[in-house]
Design goal:
single chain; 185 residues; 0% strand; mainly alpha; Leucine-rich Repeat Variant
Length: 185
């Protein structure tokens, strides 16, 4: 995952190179216990003993868990110094929106994605725009329209693809308040 994000980041910085293959763990494969069939899933913790202890991998795991309860944990890293971590935040939010929708987390999610769609790194903006396109709400349309005017062509392409499904959404017409003409004389 990290190598893919690095590849995208390098691509938009004009340094194309093939992504490095992921490290293959040595030793016998570990058996995962069967998933519990009742009760909510617990979110994987960040620990030194956890093989996925890097923050980026942890955010990815929270996204893959697909639980709305992870949204505050994920979004708390939206201003991280690493572009890869910020991209992972956008991608993880997209995974949650695909799995279960947003429910009560929509306001926080949209606020964070709006910020990430204006990030200084094009790869982060692309990840945010792709996630916005997965949210089936007209609230994302203004953010996608703004991304259509991005100076980076990769962001514009992502925004164009993300906004295409919204072409069939009905347009809500706002009623302009009538202003009485000024009296003369």
């Amino acid at each position: 995952m990290a190598s893919l994000l690095q590849f995208i980041l390098n691509l938009f910085q004009g340094k194309p190179q093939a992504p490095k293959p992921e490290a293959v763990p040595s030793g016998p494969p570990q058996q995962n216990p069967p998933a519990a069939t009742s009760g909510p899933k617990t979110l994987p913790p960040i620990t030194a003993n956890n093989p996925q202890s890097s923050l980026e991998a942890q955010i990815q795991a929270w996204g893959e868990a697909g639980q709305n309860s992870a949204i505050p944990l994920i979004t708390s890293h939206a201003r991280h110094g690493s572009a890869e971590v910020r991209s992972a935040v956008a991608i993880a939010l997209g995974q949650i929106t695909q799995g279960s929708g947003l429910g009560n987390g929509i306001t926080l999610t949209l606020t964070v994605l709006a910020s990430l769609s204006r990030d200084s790194v094009p790869a982060v903006r692309i990840a945010a725009v792709n996630t916005l396109g997965r949210i089936k709400s007209e609230k994302v349309i203004p953010l996608l329209q703004q991304a259509l005017r991005d100076p980076n062509p990769g962001v514009v392409v992502a925004a164009s693809a993300a906004i295409a499904p919204f072409k069939s959404y009905p347009v809500k017409k706002t009623v302009e308040p009538k202003v009485a003409p000024a009296k003369r004389g």
